[in-house]
């Protein structure tokens, strides 16, 4: 009976959060944050569906004594990009036994054409009350490669395999945070194991990426294993361990990313308009 009572109390506690307006500014702290950054088809600017930057993160806010915190009143958590775009984070809705809690950041299809050309990739997060900053911190995101090819929307729209290697190129100095590169070749025809007995051809590289010197060569003989029309998907992953520990500006609290991912995705689709993978 005593055990059952304890379980019930624990369950009910998990469904409650404190209002941020009742918490003193010095009591706020962030824990176990996550962030996923994706750039889809760099230099493709014709459609929000086919390109752009997306940011999806969870920034769990706690009170040192109150536990989980949800934003209310005049309290806001605002993220400002290097190009001065501003986005307000929102409370994470209650689901099952998990209480409503601050906060999630959701940005999709951001057409920030200057991102790859900027030296500064630092976002500023500010927790404010009545426009007064209570706490803040910076997100120093990895730099993504500035691509030469594909260099414009037409490179995606007019892609066709002509029997030669397909070479993706970028400025090498912009890819210093690159940690993994992967490409996949497949056919658009219906059926199984059409690529010489395989559904798709996949290659991945994680070592000595600087030796690529700004080029990813996708060999013609591998592309030819799949019947026309073909699709090629390249994924570039970026990271920097030094960016995973963050210290806030006001209270000097330190927190780490529980999960962190930054990727670029390039989709080359032969003989027709872009279609998502």
Describe the structure.
- Strands 1, 2, 3, 4, 7, 8, 13, 14, 16, 17 and 18 form an eleven-stranded mixed sheet that branches.
- The model is unreliable at 1-14 (pLDDT under 50).
- It is built from three helices and 18 strands.
- It has a domain at 2-143: Immunoglobulin-like (Sandwich), CATH 2.60.40.
- The protein is elongated, with a radius of gyration of 23 Å.
- By secondary structure, it is mainly beta.
- The longest helix has 13 residues, at 2-14.
Please give the number of β-strands. Answer: 18
Quick one: biggest sheet?
A: 11 strands, mixed
What is the H/E string? HEEEEEEEEEEEHEEEEHEEE
**N-end to C-end Cα span:** 53 Å
For the record, the CATH class of the domain at 2-143 is Mainly Beta
Label the structural class.
mainly beta
- Reported by name, the CATH topology of the domain at 2-143 is Immunoglobulin-like
Q: Counting H and I runs of at least 4 residues, what is the number of helices?
A: 3
The average pLDDT is 88
Low-confidence stretches: 1-14
Overall geometry comes to: elongated
β-strand amount: over 45%
The percent range for helix content is: under 10%
Radius of gyration: 23 Å
CATH architecture descriptor name of the domain at 2-143: Sandwich
Protein name: Lipoprotein
Feature tags:
single chain, Lipoprotein, eleven-stranded mixed β-sheet, Immunoglobulin-like, mainly beta, 277 residues
In short:
The chain is built from three helices and 18 strands. It is mostly beta strands.
């Amino acid at each position: 009976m005593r055990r059952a009572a304890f379980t019930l109390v624990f369950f009910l506690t998990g469904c409650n959060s404190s209002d941020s307006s009742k918490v003193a500014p010095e009591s706020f702290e962030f824990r176990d944050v996550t962030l996923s950054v994706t750039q889809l088809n760099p230099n493709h600017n014709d459609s929000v569906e086919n390109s752009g930057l997306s940011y999806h993160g969870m920034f769990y806010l706690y009170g040192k004594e109150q536990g989980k915190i949800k934003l209310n009143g005049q309290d806001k958590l605002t993220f400002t990009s290097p190009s001065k775009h501003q986005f307000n984070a929102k409370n994470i809705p209650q689901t099952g036994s998990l209480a409503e809690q601050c906060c999630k950041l959701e940005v999709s299809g951001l057409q920030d054409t200057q991102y790859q050309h900027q030296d500064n990739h630092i976002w500023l997060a500010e927790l404010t009350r009545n426009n007064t900053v209570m706490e803040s911190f910076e997100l120093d995101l990895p730099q993504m490669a500035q691509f030469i090819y594909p260099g414009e929307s037409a490179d995606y729209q007019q892609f066709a395999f002509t029997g030669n290697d397909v070479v993706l190129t970028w400025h090498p100095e912009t890819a210093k945070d690159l940690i993994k590169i992967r490409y996949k070749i497949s056919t658009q025809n219906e059926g199984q194991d059409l690529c010489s007995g395989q559904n798709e051809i996949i290659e991945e590289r994680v070592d000595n990426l600087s030796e690529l010197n700004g080029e990813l060569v996708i060999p013609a003989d591998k592309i030819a294993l799949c019947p026309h029309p073909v699709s090629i998907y390249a994924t570039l992953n970026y990271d920097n361990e030094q960016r995973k520990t963050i210290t806030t500006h006001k209270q000097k609290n330190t927190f780490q990313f529980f999960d962190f991912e930054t990727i670029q995705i390039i989709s080359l689709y032969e003989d027709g308009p872009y279609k998502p993978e």
